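Fill in residues.
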């Protein structure tokens, strides 16, 4: 579990990483993927925590991209075509045409194991659910979102792409919806400040940034059961991300207001530890390894990416040098 810390734990002094290494091909294990917004490219994290850097782009000049939580795949839109790009951790990406579209997705959500994906279209009027991403992608259904007037903040989708959830935000309040093809969006609970969603098994974890709470939702198809698992009274302060430990016993919460990562025991709903940061986290997104989570994306040539390693109970930074073209 995370230990109480008085300062952010930053392991890794990577000033010695050379410009030549930045421009080289894959020369070590890929521990995750980063989206470089400056060069519009997808870049691998070469090396493991303690000696890692952003490598040569594997995909370049995209119009839209979203990386999967397995650290191997991505959805990439180029030239009015959406592609599923596989094997990004192996140095020889495999491109597969996913769908033709004149518009770009406005939001993408992957299932935790990257078996399925949910795509919100450009004007947020519809959500497409796709399954079978490991073999033969298949459109399992479409949900009309025209009845939702609030802004969509987060989406979560189940592994079979049978349903999804959306947290939405209006001027002063928000809503959690259950989205099922062939049915109108169903309101499950009100929100004060819509935040991140995490769907794992039969539990949905919902972050409310306004109330500074994380709620576990179960039995959503009938009478939803709502249970608060973390709150402001136990340290939550503007939660921008939630994640689970590999064994499912700990819930990690990324606080923007207090600049902390908190670890809660889900059996007792008690705080087990906290890790102080010297930056504001933007999320808590799994990136390949079950213990690695992206807290903040880097800016090429300006600021490193920040990655949490729950196994080592540390945060490390990944230098992001200016990209040297190498992808398609």
């Amino acid at each position: 579990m995370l230990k109480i810390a008085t300062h952010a734990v930053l392991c890794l002094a990577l000033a010695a990483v050379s410009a030549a290494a930045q421009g080289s091909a894959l020369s070590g294990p890929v521990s995750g993927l980063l989206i470089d917004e400056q060069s519009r490219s997808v870049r691998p994290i070469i090396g493991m925590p303690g000696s890692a850097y952003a490598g040569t782009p594997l995909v370049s000049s995209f119009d839209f991209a979203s990386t999967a939580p397995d650290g191997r795949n991505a959805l990439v839109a180029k030239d009015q075509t959406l592609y599923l790009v596989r094997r990004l951790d192996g140095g020889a990406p495999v491109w597969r045409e996913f769908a033709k579209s004149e518009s770009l997705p406005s939001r993408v959500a992957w299932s935790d194991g990257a078996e399925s994906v949910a795509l919100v279209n450009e004007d947020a009027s519809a959500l497409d659910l796709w399954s079978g991403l490991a073999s033969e992608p298949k459109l399992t259904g479409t949900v009309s979102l025209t009845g939702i007037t609030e802004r969509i903040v987060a989406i979560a989708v189940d592994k079979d792409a049978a349903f999804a959830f959306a947290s939405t935000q209006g001027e002063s309040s928000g809503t959690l919806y259950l989205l099922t093809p062939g049915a109108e969006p169903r309101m499950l609970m009100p929100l004060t400040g819509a935040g991140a969603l995490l769907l794992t098994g039969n539990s949905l974890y919902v972050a409310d940034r306004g109330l500074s709470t994380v709620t576990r939702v179960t039995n959503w198809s009938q009478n939803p059961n709502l249970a608060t698992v973390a709150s402001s009274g136990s340290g939550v302060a503007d939660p921008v991300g939630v994640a689970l430990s590999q064994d499912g016993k700990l819930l990690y919460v990324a606080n923007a207001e207090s600049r902390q990562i908190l670890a809660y025991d889900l059996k007792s709903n008690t705080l087990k530890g906290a890790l102080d940061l010297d930056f504001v986290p933007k999320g808590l997104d799994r990136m390949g390894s079950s213990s690695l989570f992206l807290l903040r994306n880097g800016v090429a040539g300006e600021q490193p990416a920040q990655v949490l390693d729950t196994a080592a109970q540390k945060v490390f930074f990944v230098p992001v040098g200016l990209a040297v073209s190498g992808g398609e």
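The two ends are 41 Å apart (CA to CA).
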